[in-house]
Specification:
This protein is of the alpha/beta class and 341 residues long. It contains eleven helices and 17 strands. The chain binds S-adenosylmethionine (SAM).
């Protein structure tokens, strides 16, 4: 996932970088989280790019090997390390799959790789990841079984042919990374980490045995919640339900959690108070929106994107209140909610 400039290293202005370096750079919170998790004496970062992840490793590890096949990229990473005053990274120019490179990093306790993906791909697949993960594993396993590799978080996990912990990471409510932790690095089957809160959710024995289904209800309580997309992607809805004492509202494809009393959790992106429920026909919805003193209405219904603003303006033309309401609709039912600050 391309990094936003604001999420990068705080000293980014001092560094020499191209647009491409920035596009693929690891956000500092992600780099620091991974570096803490992979703390050891000697680590190798294969495909280090402009070096953002390697710089975080350098804080936690005694020695870091940073391997990169792009000569100019490696030179920029080297220069940036100098500007940041980092002295414990050994930079190696070469192909991570090359035997000569392998020999140079063979005292690594842990090997990490954040491979290249094609920027213009519609859907992510294993075949376009570079270096090829299977070949990489074969090469790395000669040195250590403790391997961590990043995959595009959208990838279908059945397509990942290695046993490891799948850690889905979210920053500011958005799904950002999937890292696979293999060998002794595997602590759980699947986990979610939410940054900046550093909140962790993982598969437990109870949720594994209850076939990973969250508690389902047909009726909403006083509050409803949007679930962090990393939790949904990781398939940890049952864990979330158990951890927060909330239930999953049966509403077709959309995932909305609900509870009687207000529950605060970093795994919910947005919390709403339920104001009204009515049939999802136009008159009933307008009447309820007016009763709720709505001034604007965000639609969370199955409307074709090109019709969204026409439908929304039609509602809003009949409203003269001040409240910002969100409208969910499913199975002939409309739910009017407002965000809890
Ligand atoms: C996504 S970027 C890494 C970004 C880096 N983690 C950061 O935080 O700045 C992937 C890098 O892997 C490099 N790469 C791809 N295949 C490689 C290979 N076989 N050997 C070495 N480097 C490779 C690419 O040139 C690219 O710079």
């Amino acid at each position: 996932m391309p990094a936003k400039k604001g999420l990068l290293h705080p000293l980014v202005k001092r560094l020499t970088l191209t647009e491409e370096d920035i596009r693929w750079a690891t956000p500092i919170s992600v780099a620091e989280h991974r570096a803490k998790r992979l703390r050891c004496k000697v680590i190798a970062d294969l495909g280090c790019g402009a070096g953002f992840q390697a710089f975080a490793f350098a804080k936690q590890c005694k020695k870091v090997y940073a391997v990169e096949k792009g000569r100019e990229k490696l030179d920029r990473a080297k220069e940036n390390a100098r500007r940041l005053g980092i002295t414990n990274i050994i930079f190696i120019h070469g192909d991570a799959l090359d035997e000569h490179v392998r020999e140079k990093v063979d005292d690594s306790e842990i090997i990490f790789c954040d491979p290249s993906r094609l920027p213009e791909e519609q859907s992510r697949s294993m075949s376009t990841i570079q270096p090829d993960p299977k070949q990489l594993f074969n090469v790395c396993q000669v040195i250590t079984k403790d391997i961590a590799i990043e995959f595009p978080p959208q990838i279908r996990t059945e397509n990942i042919p290695f046993n490891g912990e799948k850690e889905y990471l979210s920053i500011q409510g958005k799904l950002n990374r999937l890292t696979l932790y293999c060998g002794g690095l595997k602590k759980n089957e699947t986990s979610v980490i939410v940054l900046p809160e550093q909140a962790v959710l993982f598969t437990t024995e109870t949720t594994k045995s209850s076939l990973s289904k969250p508690r389902l209800v047909n009726e909403q309580g006083q509050f409803v919640y949007d679930v962090n997309p990393a939790v949904t992607k990781a398939g940890l809805l049952a864990e979330l339900s158990e951890k927060t004492g909330t239930a999953c509202l049966c509403m077709g494809k959309r995932t909305l959690f609900t509870s009687k009393n207000l529950v605060e959790s970093p795994f919910f992106c947005c919390t709403y108070r339920v104001l009204a429920v009515c049939p999802s026909n136009n008159d009933a919805v307008i009447s309820k929106l007016q009763e709720c003193h709505a001034g604007s209405v965000t639609l969370r219904c199955t409307i074709p994107p090109e019709e969204y603003w026409t439908v929304r303006r039609k509602y809003e033309a009949q409203l003269n209140g001040t409240k910002r309401i969100t409208l969910f609709e499913w199975d002939g039912k409309a739910l009017l909610v407002e965000k809890v600050a």
